[in-house]
Design brief:
Elements: E1 2-9, H1 14-28, E2 34-41, E3 47-55, H2 59-68, H3 70-73, E4 77-85
Antiparallel strand pairs: 1-3, 1-4, 2-3
Length: 90
């Protein structure tokens, strides 16, 4: 199943994002779970969150993947949602 992880950073957390970005990107690339991923941006082009499309067997697997993300472990996110997603195009 496909699941969208939509996460918003805590205000002022750009340094936390930057410090943990190499580990986060390595985690994204560490297996076949991530189908697409990239940062959410504000009007000035600054990173303010994340969008990750996961291909997982079930929601428990999505929750486990999200909890192990270095960004989540660093406390970067103010909010994070896991939402089942249906690919229509792409």
């Amino acid at each position: 199943m496909l699941v969208a992880l939509i996460a918003r950073d805590k205000p002022g957390a750009l340094p936390v994002r930057q410090e943990n970005r190499p580990a986060h990107v390595a985690y994204l690339k560490s297996g076949d779970t991530v189908q697409q991923a990239g940062p959410l941006l504000d009007d000035a082009g600054q990173m303010i969150g994340s969008l990750v499309i996961l291909d997982v067997p079930d929601m428990d697997a999505a929750r486990q993947w999200a909890a192990a993300d270095p960004y989540a472990k660093a406390g970067l996110f103010e909010t994070a949602e896991l939402i089942p997603w249906n690919r229509v195009i792409g």
